[in-house]
Write a structure and sequence with these properties.
There is one protein chain. The protein has 100 residues and is mainly α. The chain has a domain of 31 residues. The protein contains 2 helices and no strands. The radius of gyration is 23 Å and the shape is rod-shaped. The chain starts with 7 loop residues before the first helix and ends with a helix. The relative contact order is 0.14.
């Protein structure tokens, strides 16, 4: 007979991992914006302006969309963990009583 395993810790690990990814993406956007600001001081040309617009419209926008997705997934995992908290607790109690 195999035990059914409900891993509450897996929810926490997933949420924590997504939080780190979200933080890292935010730091990446900040770094990119700082680089662009620095470039603007020495590369104030029509080509430079196209580069800055491209970075903003493509790279920054894509990263922001990824952050929104990660935030949504993380929120759903947090909700699921909260919703299943009583199941985790009840299952642990039941599992202990079966093993006695």
């Amino acid at each position: 007979m195999k035990d059914i395993i409900l891993d509450e810790q897996a929810f926490k690990v997933a949420v924590d991992s997504l939080e780190k990814i979200d933080t890292d993406l935010g730091s990446l956007v900040t770094t990119i914006n700082q680089i662009i600001t620095t470039l603007k001081t020495g590369f104030d040309t029509p080509a430079g302006e196209k580069l800055y617009n491209s970075v903003d419209q493509n790279l920054i926008k894509s990263i922001s969309n990824e952050q929104k997705t990660i935030t949504h997934i993380k929120a759903n995992l947090e909700t699921a963990k909260s919703e299943y908290a009583s199941v985790f607790s009840s299952f642990e109690t039941l599992n202990k009583s079966i093993k006695q």
